[in-house]
Specification:
8-stranded mixed sheet; 12 strands; alpha/beta; binds zinc ion
Length: 287
């Protein structure tokens, strides 16, 4: 059976529920609103995440994973995104926890996954959806979390395997934040901090994917979808406190909520001054 999908197809590969909304919420909402097909692959259910609301702190392990799956569905409704895939099926890969803890050795965790097996699961999705554009993290996973590093490795391996099997993804992007943008946002944050519900500010080092501005190839202005992004982040209530235009994770350190999202193209050809992930791609044909 041939399923006819919209002409523009975007695939995002993320480690845990909440990463999609924090990193790409505005981008996802924008492309979904424009009629592109947006597919999210989430690799784990985040069973080892720290829970913020006291009334939910009893949740751990599989119960937390199930709860976060519900949060993820609610977030995607806010973003207008319908196509969610859990890599290998729900619960196939467990959250590995922060780098360096004994949980990293759990054979069921994503960090211990066989790379090619995990990549083949992603290739199935790629061959079904045939996206022109894939978004994931850099090789450090943005900030060194094992599941983010593994998501990167699986995504990049799947791009290769899918090409061997007849679908070449035209553009691959890594999530980025330009250093100048991050610095300016943190400067504003210092001024705003007294009026925020967060006692302290995070630092630039807490923001994943910050690089020198020259490396940024693409800026996607999602400011028209800022409310959807904030609502999606709020849906991840176990993980995120939102006070627009800021948010905090379980460490309660305020950081900027970006509604223009930035990318570095690592496969394919970037157009000068790109503001569209599909720039330069002929999307008239779906075959
Ligand atoms: Zn994550």
């Amino acid at each position: 059976m041939t399923v006819l999908l919209p002409a523009r197809r975007l695939l995002l590969v993320h480690a845990h529920p909440d990463d999609e909304s924090i990193n790409n919420g505005a981008t996802m909402a924008r492309y979904a609103a424009e009629g592109a097909h947006v597919t999210l692959v989430t690799c784990t259910l985040g069973e080892r995440g720290e829970v913020i609301p006291p009334e939910l702190r009893h949740l751990a392990g599989a119960a937390l994973g199930a709860h976060r799956r519900g949060e993820l569905s609610a977030a995607l409704r806010e973003l207008g995104v319908a196509d969610l895939r859990l890599l290998g099926g729900a619960g196939r890969y467990g959250d590995s926890g922060m780098m360096g803890i004994p949980d990293n050795e759990d054979p069921a965790c994503f960090w211990q996954a066989d790379l090619d097996e995990a990549a083949r699961s992603l290739v199935e999705v790629i061959l079904g959806v045939r996206p022109q554009v894939l978004v994931t993290y850099d090789d450090d996973g943005g900030y060194g979390h094992p599941d983010h590093i593994q998501a990167h490795r699986v995504a990049m391996r799947a791009v290769e395997l899918a090409a061997e099997q007849g679908h070449r993804i035209e553009k691959v992007y890594w999530n980025r934040v330009p250093r100048s943008v991050a610095e300016a946002a943190f400067a504003r944050l210092q001024d705003d901090l007294p009026s925020l519900p967060f006692a302290k500010s995070a630092s630039l080092a807490d923001v994943p994917g910050v690089v020198d501005d020259e490396r940024i190839t693409t800026a996607v202005d999602g400011s028209a979808h800022a409310a959807a992004k904030a609502a999606a982040m709020r849906a991840h209530a176990t993980q995120i406190d939102v006070a627009e235009p800021y948010f905090a994770l379980s460490n309660e350190l305020a950081q900027p909520l970006f509604t223009t999202e930035y990318y570095e193209l690592v496969r394919g050809r970037a157009q000068p001054g790109e503001t569209d992930l599909f720039a330069g791609i002929a999307t008239g044909e779906t075959s």
